[in-house]
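Quick look at the format.
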Amino acid sequence: MPRLRLALNQTDATVGDLAGNAESVVRWTRHAAGQGAHLVAFPEMMLTGYPVEDLALRPSFVEASRAALASLATRLAEEGLGELPVVVGYLDRSATARPRYGQPAGAPQNAVAVLYGGEPVLTFAKHHLPNYGVFDEFRHFVPGDTMPVVRVRGVDVALAVCEDLWQDGGRVPAARSARAGLLLSVNASPYERDKDDTRLELVRRRAREAGCTTAYLAMTGGQDELVFDGDSIVVDRDGEVVARAPQFTEGCVVLDLDLPSADTDAPAGVVDDGLLVDRVVLSEEPAPAHGPALSGGHAERLDDDEEVYSALVVGLRAYVAKNGFRSVLVGLSGGIDSALVAAIACDAVGAEHVHGVSMPSKYSSRHSLEDAAEMARRTGLHHRTVAIEPMFDAYMDALGLTGLAEENLQSRLRGTLLMALSNQEGHLVLAPGNKSELAVGYSTLYGDSVGAYGPIKDVYKTSVFRLAAWRNRAAGARGQVPPIPENSITKPPSAELRPGQVDTDSLPDYPVLDAILELYVDRDRGADEIVAAGYDRELVTRTLRMVDTAEYKRRQYPPGTKISPKGFGKDRRLPITNRWQERG
């Protein structure tokens, strides 16, 4: 039985950085060659980054991707890596698709190439195109219709792209029909909570359906709201895990796989779902075995809170770095939200690059100021205090505001101050709002909603408390000072915009609120279904009305890391002008 040494490069790519992404391919291919690899793989759209969104509809970008692929193949050969097959994702266009209504102009394709001998010897496009959640691939691509198979060291390797595994039919049964010894899927599947468990079961099932060892190579890093968590998996034909890569870590998994020899009578022509087998033979002779087999390793899984926290850190780090910022700015209120955001920022970019500003008004409590200062002391972030009272008084003298207008003025003054410091000093401002507040509109436009990124935008308030407690426990377990003051976790949440104010003056208790929101926002349950689940009818009706009327606010909130199956933004798209109401 031939032994194939496979190198799975779980790498990060930056959208549009063709040169930088190509350099990463060369660097990791060189590393894999040094490990004696026979086949090297990179994630979906590695060369262009993912998702490219409407860049796919721009002919100049498509042609730049095609040129970058050709240049990459040449360079690999020039550097002595031409005899090592490299599987890499890129953006291509169909040479055969005819323009038609409803098809993206130019027929762009989410494509993969096998580079060998200084040229692409096999190219193909993603067959199943996702069009749900954050995906708009019917808008951006046309599908491929082949079953690509590359023969390497006497093993037939069937190739697929991400959704080709997530959907039934297509390339998975076709791999069985083509009698492949290995099914290799390259992916850029975004992270969401508990997806690692779903992904593992998926890969196990598809391996049994394909009848062969299956390798699922995933991207890592972040792109705008999306985080890619890695977690590449290899299972045998029975679904048993052979190797598993770490989460949220860039690296190369190299492992030896004992696989069946390629069938000399393997079928050609059309197989399942009308896919045409496109087989390229690169090397027939099995590789001689040298030394003990490489196992690839089994990385330990992160627990649920560590996994979510890691995603938030990776998402923020990627956004800051890839958009050219060196430092971030956080309004430190002493409350739980800004404290968690500051902790995430310190872990993402280093405390020396985090600037916190306390902006007290006459309603700010002493303990809030002390908690903000204590947070800075524990983490080492830069901290300053700028009182907003003189500015507030000037506005009040001029306008004589009362009630909600007076409360919101304080928040807007703080937002203006943060943006002024951002303009003056070049920091990226972080918005501290959580998913509970965004859902019900418990925020001030142009106030606490200002910023370029919202690290906890997709985190419900109850999870904010849980993550803060986890971060402190993790610090204690490592013998470090817990970054978040205990008082910020235990005191009742308050915006402190009027005397004695607490969040529950305006909102239900957060555990109840979040449970209702999870049903309505994340699961699209109607009012009657939520009431039937055990919640008070009047409370449900009031909560849902708050959610519906706050859509205009959410449209103006900055992007933030997605960790749930349905985050605000691309996942959940509802009209602002909307007279439909759920009535419980």
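Next, a different chain entirely:
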Amino acid sequence: MRIGLLTEGGYPYATGDSRLWCDRLVRGLAPHEFDVYALSRSARQEDAGWIDLPPHVQRVRTAPLWAPEDDGHTYGRRERRWFAGHFGALVTGVCADDEESGARSFADGLYGLAELARERGGLYAALRSELAVRTLESACRAPGARRGAAAATVPDYLDFVDQLERALRPLSLDWYEDDGLGAVDLCHAASGGSAALPGLLAKRFFGTPLLVTEYGVHLRAQYLAATDAPRSAPVRALLAGFHGRLAAEVYRQAALLTPGNTHARRWQEKCGADRAKLRTVYPGMESERFTEVGEDEESGDPATLVWVGRVEPAKDLIALLHAFAEVRKEQPEVRLRIIAAPVREPGADAYVAHCRALAAQLFPDEAAGAHAVGENPVTFEEIGGPEAPTLAEAYAAGAVVVLSSVVEGFPISLVEAMFCARATVSTDVGAVVEVIGGTGLVVPPRNPRALADACLALLRDPERRYRLGAAARARALELFTVEQNLAAFRGIYLELLSHSPVRRRAVEGVPFAHPAEAYVPGTWADQPVSAAAGAGDPDA
């Protein structure tokens, strides 16, 4: 089977989202062929290069979304009229307050623009033209437009058109030929949004089935990013309308959607996804590196709490430190180790400094005697340091692992702690309850008292800690390994292809030259049927 893997800001680049799970998927399904169609998000990502690709990746084609890229195409009078009609339908759908008519208008405009770009050349100049701005203005001021869109002014139109051109850039790519996406048996989009656009067009032009996987819902990420961006309210409303319509169209056209957890699944359902198309596939994680720790239930200091992750405001280390202050009132010998992955995001150092200052204020250095050096019961460390050289040893440092987040998608650190057979205390955010499944303690977010009580309950009861840790490890090995992830997608690929028409060219003059077994992974199935066999060879 030939798979077209569609990514945005990830695989095969060395940095970015979904890079690890895509690499595990491709390497784990080696009998299949993969063509990678990747959209990059920044010059830094492109400069970092690609990871090493396995030999069954047949082709890699890339395109940037991060910078203006003039395709050199200009339209004549007739093409401009066609563009105005299709673009008008798309932005009318974006602005429309009525869901049904808006979705229909958006889809008509989207596919009309795609067909125009395919026949007459790219859309770059047209999307950045005065005609596009005037058409957008008419849609914003039309009766029935959303209130936020109606308040837009000329600077807002210009800003939105710029963002729209980048989001729609996949429509202008030269990927939609018989030897491009027309040659794949299945398109697998690693996220929604722009990554799924080539899959929509492959289905439109060639009838190729589309599979969409979302471990973090693209639409939710766009909404969260919009709140932090320095844009006006009308532009945010227009962008929200566009991404909402695009997500709904992707969900409608996809043959199957594979959310990574129930939290993502609920988002997809709210955006119009058909429940019959939804199938949860948990992300696969490597469990082998945690085996030694997981099989040693006696490892870990019974008087140490461990927090592992990226230090950022969403992890709410402030609440964790206040909770630890309550724990110390009951058990003064307990320590807290905050072990962080190296973070390079802007502003991360300031938050770490704030947490260190709070820890110094809450827990002055304590000395055992008049001539001893004082120590703080809270330590800030990095993975790779002398005390925690590996991730597994970070989790092995204590008996209880704590997660204090106020925002969380799929809690990877929690699964890693489960592989290590650690009892956990977590806040009830994102997919935490789904991941834990009764094998750990869960408390409300932003509640230091509840967090402290749960930690104390486990610190005081070693038998309960061992029991919960063993159950957590068993659950993680059953649900969250790379093997279960690969098995799920292997079956899904075959299932989707079994419901799609066979599009490979038959061997001339030989009926059934590509039987159904040809799609089963394995080199034996790739041998063409000989003319003698087709004529009734008794040994065939």
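The longest helix spans residues 99-120.

See the schema section for token definitions.
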